[in-house]
Design goal:
The protein has helices at 2-40, 58-64; strands spanning 41-44, 47-50, 53-56, 71-73, 76-78, 85-87. By secondary structure, it is of the alpha+beta class. The chain has one domain. Strands 1-2-3 form a three-stranded antiparallel β-sheet. The chain has a three-stranded antiparallel β-sheet with strand order 4-5-6, with no helix packed on it. The radius of gyration is 23 Å and the shape is rod-shaped.
């Protein structure tokens, strides 16, 4: 009887360790993905760029760790998620391939 209880306890501990191991592996993968993304992102003129993709919302990334693509609305980029607008003087890249300057106003005035 004692041996059966001991075996059941060992089995439960093994299951608990497997579950903890799975959680830790998921956390490691999440951290590796975050680290990789941070290496790929560039913060230029108030918005994020991922290689040649973007722009992405600075507020959504910094506050919520989300990459939300900004929409081109007339004279600004607009985030449909948080409603932040990023005002620009010209297109995100000028003809030389450089990022354009912006009149970024974090308060949206």
């Amino acid at each position: 009887m004692e041996l059966q209880k001991f075996l059941l306890q060992l089995q439960q501990e093994a299951l608990d360790l497997q579950a903890e191991n799975m959680v830790l592996k998921t956390q490691i993968q999440d951290l590796e993905n975050t680290q990789k993304l941070q290496k790929e992102l560039a913060f230029k003129n108030g918005v994020y760029w991922k290689n040649d993709e973007g722009p992405f919302c600075q507020r959504c990334h910094d506050a919520d760790e989300k990459l939300i693509r900004l929409q081109d609305w007339h004279d600004c980029w607009h985030c449909t998620n948080c409603k932040q607008s990023y005002y620009t003087k010209q297109n995100p890249k000028d003809n030389s391939g450089n990022y354009a300057e912006t009149d970024y106003d974090p308060l949206g005035y």
